[in-house]
Amino acid sequence: MERRSQADRDAITIEIGYAVVSACFAAALAFGAVFGPALAFSLSPSTRRILAVAGGILAAAVFLLRVTHVLLGFARRPENDGD
């Protein structure tokens, strides 16, 4: 098994950073889409709590899916096959 070059390690680091930052942005949008009406309208506290929990669950799922999608796509590129 050959060692990775510095350029390969840098590319992996940048790809992980991109995956995390873009996943945070997507998760924030998902949370805002669910919880936004609670801020715009005067809803009961129990409804606000339900929307916050639902938004948090959706945001976590979106975060994990986005990170997985980006990193698996990076790993499947032909130039990352290790040859």
Provide an overview of this structure.
The protein is an all-alpha fold. It has one domain (11-78). The chain is built from 2 helices and no strands. It has helices at 6-40, 45-75. It is rod-shaped and about 60 Å long. It starts with 5 loop residues before the first helix and ends in an 8-residue tail after the last helix. The mean pLDDT is 90. The chain crosses the membrane at residues 12-38, 50-75. InterPro entries: DUF6332.
Sum up the structure in keywords:
83 residues, mainly alpha, transmembrane, DUF6332, membrane, transmembrane helix
Describe the secondary structure blueprint for this structure.
Layout: H1 6-40, H2 45-75
Summed up:
This protein has 83 residues and is mainly α. It has two helices and no strands.
Rounded to an integer, what's the Rg over CA atoms?
Answer: 18 Å
Helix content: over 70%
Distance between the termini: 10 Å
Beta-strand content bin:
under 5%
Structural class: mainly alpha
Number of strands: 0
Multimeric status of the protein: single chain
Strand/helix succession: HH
- Number of helical segments with 4 or more residues: 2
How many structural domains in the coordinates? Answer: 1
Query: Overall mean pLDDT score?
Result: 90
Low-confidence stretches: none
Largest pleated sheet = none
Which of globular, elongated, flat, extended, rod-shaped describes the shape? rod-shaped
Transmembrane segments: 12-38, 50-75
Pfam families: DUF6332
Keywords: Membrane, Transmembrane, Transmembrane helix
